User: Fold this.
Amino acid sequence: MSLALMLTIGLSNFAFAQNESATTDTAAASQVDAVTAPVTETPEAPLEESESFHQVLKNKFIEGGAVWMFPILICLIIGLGLSIERIIYLNLSTTNTTKLLSKVESELQANGINAAKEVCKNTRGPVASIFFQGLDRYNEGIDIVEKSVISYGGVMMARLETNLSWITLFIALAPMLGFLGTVVGMVQAFDSIEAAGDISPTVVAGGMKVALLTTVFGLIVAIILQVIYNYLVAKVESLVNSMEDSTISFMDILVKNKNAKN
Assistant:
């Protein structure tokens, strides 16, 4: 009995040891497989690219409808063209009147009328043109020179203000076209409501958005042209003031030179 009991206990311990060794080997193999197994990367969701300002502007322009958007665009193009022409012309018309008066006075005293006229002829701008007209009638008397300067000064002022009235037209016309497109779009939206027989957001929102886009673009065009127009008006006023001040000094130079000769 004792011998049988000892054999049974020994066999049990041997079997337990074998099971424990097998469990340990299985766990180790699992760890090795986990380490050596390739790592599967989870694909990332693609990032949504944000639209550029140019793309958004183009989409909104298309949504507004060509019937109303193209006239507003034409107002912007023509208004900018006239504005750029005026900016270039007014900047080229700017003259250093102090330097011009000094040259005219020195040439008038040293070399006479023809030399002073040559200085004015070689100088660009309305001020030099006014001086040339005055010098051209110098021999006819100071009163004639003064009348000639005043008359030609009025002509130069009118040239400076050329096309400004057309710019104001497009400033007023662009938002008016936008408002007209909005009103027409609202009428169409109410027609859609009447046809559908229901005031649902889906029926109203689309037509209202398209209608309001025309007003937005019309106001943008008017704002751009209005800023440029105010700059042009300020530039014209500055040139006119410079013309008036320099003309007074020019007449004083002619009177002084006339008295010096007499």
In short: The first helix runs from residue 2 to 36. Confidence is low (pLDDT under 50) at residues 1-48.
